[in-house]
Amino acid sequence: QPGPLSPQAVALLRALGLSEPPAPRQPRPVPPLLWRLFRKSQEKLAAAKETQEPQGPEQQAQPCRVEELGVPGNIVRLVPDRGKLRNQGKLLSGSRAGGGADSPQARGPPRHRLNPSRPVTRPPRAPCLPFPPGGSVQFEEPALAPLCVEKPLFFNLSALAPQEQPTLVRLELACARGAPGPGWELSLSLAPGPQLWGWQAHWHHRQLLLTQPLLPGQDTIHLDLLDLGLVGPSALPRNLSLVLEILAGGGGDGNGTEAACTSLGRSLEASLLVVTLHPQQCRPLARRR
Amino acid sequence: RTVAPAAPAPDRICRPHQLYVSFRDVGWHDWIIAPRGFMANYCRGSCPFPLATQLNSVNHAILQSLMHSVAPAQTPLPCCIPVRLSPISVLFYDNGDNVVLRHYEDMVVDECGCR
Predict the structure, then answer these.
(1) Is the ipTM of this complex over 0.90?
(2) A273 chain-B contacts, CB cut-off 8 A
């Protein structure tokens, strides 16, 4: 009966791995991927029932494996991003171009606006130029790639039980039509949790995880965080804070680039696809005698 | 000599009984996206001798039903339990507003047998 939980309801919820009935605040649309996985599982179950003959291990659906994703697991979650977009596609000077996480640029001063009419050039990778004997060299302030989008990503993973072993942790990014031209880049950094969130703390404590080109027309990007070594095969952290940056490439005029940045910033959506295996609820496949 | 008891009525023989639970009935339809309910089938019925030989029984259940027919006070009848189960998958919102697809093994009773 609806109303206060009966002992039977509590027992059934516990069997479902839940401590209480969830109370979604604003139910989101069902992600197409999860709906597709659910439909596939229903078809497999119906097919297994229809045959009802004992099947060899090969024909049986692996009891705890997500075939479509090719990983073991019996729980698939799509965790929404809770971070807020910091700059709505405004062009800013770049931060990291040409250097790694420990380069002075990554830890540099807060950003300042770059004159978009000035051509964007990449500084040499080695910041120190050889001095000619007896001569002097005029340093030119390196012009950095303009920062197009800077988005903090925050994922609340507290719903995962400690026993759950992650087998896939994939950052899924969707943006309108990808980069407008060549030379655009996407970078992902690890940032501290929201409790340290502050302009200076943000810059000083981030750790660059990867940089990769953002191709024209590439509207979906999948980044496997297990491969990045960001999270290990043991239990996941309760929160995951990342910083996503998109650096504008060259070759566009300032206004076109700025418009592209604005559209990219507005259309950018992030979510985390997490597949885990609950060892107590998944028994290995028993071989039939 | 003892006289074998009369065979029980067919609906009392060990077999699966279907029971469908609608999530709307128990007030869970706002957080469970799909399916709309689940089969909470259960096994009920007896395993008398000599019927146990047809009831998907293993050998010791057949022997036990035989011994029960000879000395009912000392040897109980075999039990009627699930012997073939199916998994289910449930799509739902959890407390963190995540959409979760979860697979549960051995959830639906397909067949019953004497053990």
Answers:
(1) no
(2) none
